[in-house]
Amino acid sequence: MSCNSCPPFGGYKFPSCFQRYGGISNKKNPGNVQTLHSLAHNVMPKFYDGVELDYYHRLAPNKFISAAWVLSHVRPAGFRFGGLYTFRVLDDFMLTPTIVGDIHPTTLAANLNILYYPFKPLRMEAVLQKPGEDTPVETQYTIEWTRPSDTWTANLYNVRNENGRCTLSVMRSITQHWAIGGELLLEWNEPKKLMTDLAFAARYSHHHYSFAATVSRQGLDVSYWQRIHPQIQMANLLAWNRSTRKTIATICYQWNFWNCAVHGMIDSDALVGFMWTKYLSHLPLQMGFSVVMSLPTDRFAFGMRFVLDPSGLRRGD
């Protein structure tokens, strides 16, 4: 299948693979509550900070190594190396568990991601992050059950006896275009003190546009995404916080060309941003830069990223 309007891979995470399930259903799976606004968020620019150099090399279909060097005032600077390894390969299909990780050799800061599908509809994932030698490990565990028309998800964040946070959510398609859901938040800072909150979510979608909203006691989030041209996408986002009484509205776009992609945005705080990514035809190199500027303060940030991949892994080949 060819898609001339598909954008080049810009160093982001690929969407989840399509799954086949037995039975018949005239409703589509709505995904989970966490990805309700993903269509609009994917249009927004992903700003770089400083200079970043990435290298990827495929050793086999199920494993590759990576290295990165970052010079930044915001992100941890220095050199990191890591890779990805999938334990089982059946014909042309990679079967989980899959392990992705990297480490900073100087500070020993490390990231580890383990993904496992014991059954087709069941996803189990663990994300571990160690910022430094003297800091505790930050953890996130996910268990997700996917059916033809609904998704049940449980997330555990830094769960300990003294403190922690847990979310339980469900998203269900009620028609071909409508999906509704809810999320229960459980948070505790002391062993006997439990705080709860409830959020509701809804989405109305067609193949070329989508409207989504989430509401809780803490605030409101609304997003609208539309494909106005085979190569152009537009998105609008609105966020209101009840405690701060602050509202932020954002307009963003994405324009895909045959070998590059352009992203732009402007919000109600007069923050303007732009991102450009391109594949070089004569070198296995993807390059990109971004600029974000605050008009009221006349301050801006500029970043660049270079991805060298001789094996063509980042192109999805």
From TrEMBL:
Record keywords: Membrane, Mitochondrion, Mitochondrion outer membrane, Protein transport, Receptor, Transmembrane, Transmembrane beta strand, Transport
Example GO molecular function: protein transmembrane transporter activity
The keyword Metal-binding appears for this protein: no
UniProt superkingdom: Eukaryota
Gene3D superfamilies attached to this UniProt entry: Porin
Compartment(s) of residence: Mitochondrion outer membrane
One GO biological process term: protein import into mitochondrial matrix
PANTHER family assigned: MITOCHONDRIAL IMPORT RECEPTOR SUBUNIT TOM40
Family of the protein in this entry: Belongs to the Tom40 family.
Pfam family name, one: Porin_3
One GO cellular component term: mitochondrial outer membrane
Keyword RNA-binding attributed: no
Name of the protein described by the UniProt record: Mitochondrial import receptor subunit TOM40 homolog 2
Annotated membrane topology: Multi-pass membrane protein
InterPro entries: Porin_dom_sf, Porin_Euk/Tom40, Tom40
